[in-house]
Amino acid sequence: MRRNKKSLFLVILILLMPVMTVLATGAKESTAAGQKYKIVIMPKLVGVQYYAVVKQGIDDAVKELPNVQVQWIGPTTPDADKQIDLIRSVIPTKPDLIAVAANDPAALVPVFKEAQAAGIHVMSWDGDINFREAFVNLVDYDEFGAGLMKSMASQIGSAGDIAIITTTFTAPNQVRWIEAIKKTAASQYPAINILDVRPAGEDTNKSFQIAQDLIKTTPTLKGIIVLGVPNVPGAAEAVKEAGMTGKIAIVGNSTPGPIKPYIKAGVVRDSLLWNAPDHGYLTVYTAYALLQGKLKVGQAFSAGRLGMFTPKQDELSM
Q1: Cα(295)–Cα(213) distance, rounded to whole angstroms?
Q2: Edge-to-edge strand list for the sheet holding 134-137
Q3: In the 8-state DSSP scheme, what is residue 217?
Q4: In which element (H, E) is residue 131 found?
Q5: Mean per-residue pLDDT for 17-23?
Q6: pLDDT tens figures, 215-270
């Protein structure tokens, strides 16, 4: 399994919001004696191994920050409407900050504005939102998408038919990864044809079914790029059961445990990874810095064991 530490990194992007911003008077300087900052952190969904691993890093950060309290909640399916309902349910509890890994970057904007109007800081992580004070990104979108395409080309050659399995067509990070995959294919591997892109949610069985159908209906298929940690083993199992090991390449992002048997069996050659616990850990430290008024563009802040990080502005900044 390959880890490319140079191309996979965490970035913090700051959005200067027009009403209440971390760079103006909205930042909370300190908690009252004996009180804790209350932070709500929401993944795209709960009940999957990947976000359970992210949660380990969150718990580590909370142990190091005694005046921080984290509530971890999320939907059981990658559904933006369910995230909206959950956010609305926590606004009346008056947390200091809500951090969400969005299933849709636009759909969550109105409820984030509601939270902000209630005096709650809002930020995104993993999946971005088009209205937030800070975004904790896990990898550079273009580098990661290009890395997936290059891994595929290294296995099937510079020509052939491939498909993509994603979680949804709205997950912000995967939308950007797919854009980068297509851009890299067009510029560097014009003879590699992306025949289809299908959504599987975060569902191993659905990914298995989609991959199985692609194999049956596309005799020229040489590879599948699979996005979403639970989806990679599903597609790999379909290739294995079809007797196509070594004939159809599987490239994607997954954690070591689920794909280990497929690597051993030769179905999967490598996987592009980042450190999931560190992503959760950095999200907590970023939220903490924001609440303390220490999260400012161009000024480094301490993120515990991860060292110093310097926030930067992005294309959404106002």
Answers
A1: 48
A2: 68-72, 37-42, 97-100, 121-125, 134-137, 11-14, 312-313
A3: H
A4: none
A5: 28
A6: 999 999 999 999 998 999 999 999 999 999 999 999 998 888 888 999 999 999 98
Chain length of the chain: 318
The Cα angle at residue 193 between residues 189 and 194, in degrees rounded to 5: 115
User: Order of strands, edge to edge, in the sheet holding 249-252?
Assistant: 191-199, 159-166, 221-226, 249-252
Task: Kindly report the backbone phi and psi dihedral angles of residue 268, in degrees, each rounded to the nearest multiple of 5, phi listed first.
Answer: -115, 130
Q: 172-188 and 141-156 helices cross at what angle (nearest 10)?
A: 50
For residue 3, how far is the Cα from the chain centroid? 17
What is the C-alpha separation between 157 and 316, in angstroms, rounded? Answer: 37
pLDDT digits (tens, 9 = 90+) for 148-190: 999 999 999 999 999 999 999 988 889 999 999 999 999 999 9
Rounded CA separation 122/24 (Å): 14
Structure tokens at 296: 């400012």
**Cβ(146)–Cβ(182) below 8 Å:** no
- Taking the C-alpha atoms of residue 205 and residue 238, their distance in angstroms, rounded to an integer, is 10
> What is the rounded distance in angstroms from the CA atom of residue 115 to the CA atom of residue 110?
9
**Strand pairing class (68-72; 37-42):** parallel
Q: Which residue has the tokens 């140079």?
A: 6
Q: How far apart are CA 69 and CA 224, in angstroms?
A: 41
* Domains delineated in the chain: 11-139+275-313 (3.40.50.2300), 141-264 (3.40.50.2300)
Least Cα distance to 3 among 279, 256, 264 occurs for 256
Packing angle, helices 80-90 and 109-117, rounded to 10: 10
Report the interhelical angle of 231-241 vs 204-217 (nearest 10°). Answer: 40
What does the alpha-carbon distance between residue 123 and residue 132 come to, in Å, rounded to a whole number? 5
Phi, psi torsion values for 18, nearest 5 degrees: -75, -20
Crossing angle of the two packed helices 276-291 and 49-64, in degrees rounded to 10? 40
Provide the percentage of residues in the chain whose pLDDT is more than 70.
Answer: 88
